[in-house]
Amino acid sequence: MVSLNVKRKLQAAVLILFALTVAYAKVTGPDAGYTNAPGDLGSCVACHDTFHEANVGPGSVRVEGDPITNGYVPGQQYTLRVTVQQASRRKFGFQLTAIDMNGNRAGTFESLGGDTQVNPETGLGGRQYIEHTQPGTNTAVVGSRTWQVRWTAPITDIGTVRFYVAGNAANGDDTNQNDYIYTSSAIAESPTSKVSIQLQSNLDGLILEAGTKITINWATTGQQNVDNYEARYSTDDGATFPITNLIFSTTDASVTSFEWTVPNTPTNQARIRISGGTKTGAPITPVISGRFSIVVTGGSGGTVPKISGASVSGKKLVVTGENFGAGASLYMCFTSCATPASDGDKVKKVSNDADFPTNVLVARKAGKSIERGSTVMLQVKNPDGTLSEPFTFTRPLE
Predict the structure, then answer these.
(1) What is the pLDDT of residues 236-277, one digit of tens each?
(2) pLDDT digit string (tens) for 165-194?
(3) What are phi and psi of 189, to 5 degrees?
(4) How far apart are the first and last CA of the chain?
(5) Helices H, strands E: what count in the chain?
(6) Does the reported pTM lie above 0.70?
(7) CA pseudo-torsion sign 301, 303, 306, 312
(8) How many CA atoms, within 13 angstroms, populate the side-chain half-sphere of residue 143?
């Protein structure tokens, strides 16, 4: 009969052997199904569970390559790069899979060296996994590790392929404790699912008058994968396309044109940008027009700025009228006023009213400089240089 003491020693030896086996298994590569892809068993947090969930540390994991940037050609071979990074870490690991929109295996992985291996096990939908080897956990550069793997695209066009990757930034003690796990994903579009926009309206060098209408046309490839379009304009040569300059949006993928009423925003650095999103969640690469100008003309239509009234509210001076361009300037003087207005009389901290931008200008601090009963002369100048007639404002005594 085995003594109780011997039994305890045997149990301890088995536990130690099991712990060593688990630790060794993780440095030689995880089991299949831990990339956090839909239908997988989870992510590597299932074993490296000190922090209970992924993406809580200061690092990251990413997968990159030409098919992700430019789409894939069926049957073509590509080199993908998987990078895990976290400052001060010296050991890293990963697992990567590729699936179609139904969750099934998409393409074939191969190792390019001894630092990666294809897992002999497969997952849901026959999906394949490629991951690190034990030598592949080490890094020559403290703080990050990059692996290169070969991916052969499916031999037929199966539409969008999604890559899911989990990465481990380990502390190097050869256990599953105090390791940070990160997950991410990327998309590779096919020739039929990749969406591109070609702007057909040539705006380069045009001079467009505010208030006129112009039709903007574009063509789209991969239209069946379009989720939405939107168009915005820029007045600073494409440096910004603010949401306030949204001029068109639709979720109808068949729409490839719209009629634009040119806004009253004079500039010689205007551009239009058309962008959108796909049904797979990827953004459509925006297309930006050539530079054109927006002008405001006088004429009988009266698009020159005109002041019709003014008032003081606290520190604010509120000027009302019409045809105030975006970014219009306000000039104010008390005596010996120059006409046209001079820069010395330019009021600071002036903005177009958010609700009535072409009809109301607000000077945030100018009101406090106008004494009750005193008179000032006001003028508005639009960005294109058009100037309003002088307007005389006398602040009421009460």
Answers:
(1) 999 999 999 999 999 999 999 999 999 988 888 999 999 999
(2) 999 999 877 777 678 999 999 999 999 899
(3) -90, 155
(4) 109
(5) 2, 25
(6) no
(7) positive
(8) 3
